[in-house]
Amino acid sequence: MDIFKLLSRGSSIKHNTGSVQTKKSSARQKAIEGDFNQQIDKELDFFHTRKLVEKQTSKENDNPNNQDDSQPNNTLKFETDQYEGEGEGEDKNNDESEIEDKIPMKITTKQQALNLRKSYKCKISGDDIPLPIASFEDLISRFKFNKTLLNNLIESGFDKPTPIQSETIPIFQFNRDLIACAPTGSGKTLAFLLPLIQKLLDDNLSNLKAKSDSLKGIKALIISPTKELANQIFNESLKLINNFRKTERLNIGLLSKSLASKFKNKIINNDKYDILITTPLRLIDLLNHDNSISLSNIKYLVFDEADKLFDKNFLEQSDNILSKCNNGNKNFQKLMFSATIPSSVEEIARNIMISPIRVIIGNKESANDKIEQKVLFCGSEEGKLLAIRQMIQNSEFKPPVIIFLQSVIRVKALFHELLYDRLNVDYITAERTQLQRDKVIERFKNGDIWCLICTDVLSRGIDFKGVNLVINYDVPNSAQSYIHRIGRTARGNQFGKAVTFFTKEDSESIRTIINVMKHSGSEYSEWLEKIPKLSKKQKKNFKKNSIDRKEISTVPKIIRKKRKQHKEMVEASKRRKHINNDKAFGKNVTGDSDIE
């Protein structure tokens, strides 16, 4: 496969292929309308399997002799363009086309870089900032990227860099420290995985030529705040290193419980892996266990979801990891990625980094502009539950849906309420085992579950393709939490919707959400702006102390009271029976001290 030909083709005939294949697709759709049994209802095609079937059928019809292997990439490009057209209209597509036509495939001057950055609203600061890339072809011409790596990239469906990728890949290649902020679903994972793998390939080649063993062991560390996100990064990295030659092969490890046990028992050592992906706590536990692992050869340290990793809950752990990695190596790179970067995190970053480059795509306190945001006043807790049921009745509840709540108790309560409504639903909380969480996530991704209820444990990084709706049943306690929650929809080039319920108790905290909506260009009622702003002290208290909410239920109070009384009577009866049994066997029982 000619990589140059493939990459240049995707860019040069984008608009022509779009128009030609739209006609083909339309003709095909008319041809299959008569066959009812083979038609998939668009409203039930949650994860866009219909488009995949159409793409495969189109490939067979248009290319019966299996000629020109590069055609599937053009088909994928058409799908993206068609989806954007449906969501935004032809006028926006025409405007975007005019902007793209003005941007060359290769950025060679500062003026060209300025034009490109204006097109995607990029704010960048720092010394000696490298020029961005406008296409993946630049990765070969400028940085001599591995062709197998780029083939894997194209086969995964990527043919054009996103704004964050355009900026951060060259910065990574020039060994610069980085603070990167971009909206959810904008390709941040690939923005650090792609250059990281290439850098390690270059390092291994140099090491091989010099016949040196100085770079053996773990050279790159990726820190993630949750196990689910770490697992997702691991899976994406495996796709990128597929089909590498033996001399190019990289070993990537996910620090799970079993792998940590192997390190502790000396079954494996540092030489086994080039890249290690982990959560902070798991790594700290391993570092504290008789030096089971060494980070002395680390050259690249990536903090994904940096705002979470440097908040008060993770700060000490992240600082400990940094101290273990810092071996005085001038090329030791530190990179932070997140959808939100508070000023406190930026201050920490500047203290631990050397002349970092700061990249902000859009506004650092704004949400993805492909998300239609809405706030809904429900009056009371009962009103929230009625609002969900009304959305279901009015066909506004379009699966797949994710619902966020503030506590485990409330998640379980809403789960049982919706289960009573015969909704195809499940839930995830920190209380469930890792195996249970993995199974639920897999079922949700496969479309077996239509609605997923969870706490903030799933609000960061997890890429659920095709999520149509996010509901904030409880108002999040910060703008950062809100942005990450609603970022589970509108991934990649898709569009999504987010609805936030609020009551009288949320009248102060909802102001934070309105500010995010304002920055994102979303519409909202004018009276919401008249809500008094929170003082710094109020904001601090709100983040520390969640609102004490009533329980989730539409069952009348008198019935709930009778149920509670019945439950207490049953428990008292069991205690009496237990005491009588103990007495019958001659045990000395006083009170209830032995009962549990």
TrEMBL record:
GO MF entries: ATP binding; hydrolase activity; RNA binding; RNA helicase activity
EC code(s) of this entry: 3.6.4.13
Domain of life of the native organism: Eukaryota
Family: Belongs to the DEAD box helicase family. DDX52/ROK1 subfamily.
Gene Ontology biological-process entries: endonucleolytic cleavage in 5'-ETS of tricistronic rRNA transcript (SSU-rRNA, 5.8S rRNA, LSU-rRNA); endonucleolytic cleavage in ITS1 to separate SSU-rRNA from 5.8S rRNA and LSU-rRNA from tricistronic rRNA transcript (SSU-rRNA, 5.8S rRNA, LSU-rRNA); endonucleolytic cleavage to generate mature 5'-end of SSU-rRNA from (SSU-rRNA, 5.8S rRNA, LSU-rRNA); snoRNA localization
Protein name: RNA helicase
A Pfam entry, by short name: DEAD
Naturally occurring in which organism (per UniProt): Ascoidea rubescens DSM 1968
Major subcellular site: nucleus
Signal peptide: none
Coiled-coil region list: none
A Gene Ontology term for the protein's cellular component: cytosol
Residue stretches making up the Helicase ATP-binding domain: 169-359
InterPro entries associated with the record: DDX52/Rok1_DEADc, DEAD/DEAH_box_helicase_dom, DEAD_box_RNA_helicase, Helicase_ATP-bd, Helicase_C-like, P-loop_NTPase, RNA-helicase_DEAD-box_CS, RNA_helicase_DEAD_Q_motif
The DEAD-box RNA helicase Q domain, residue ranges: 138-166
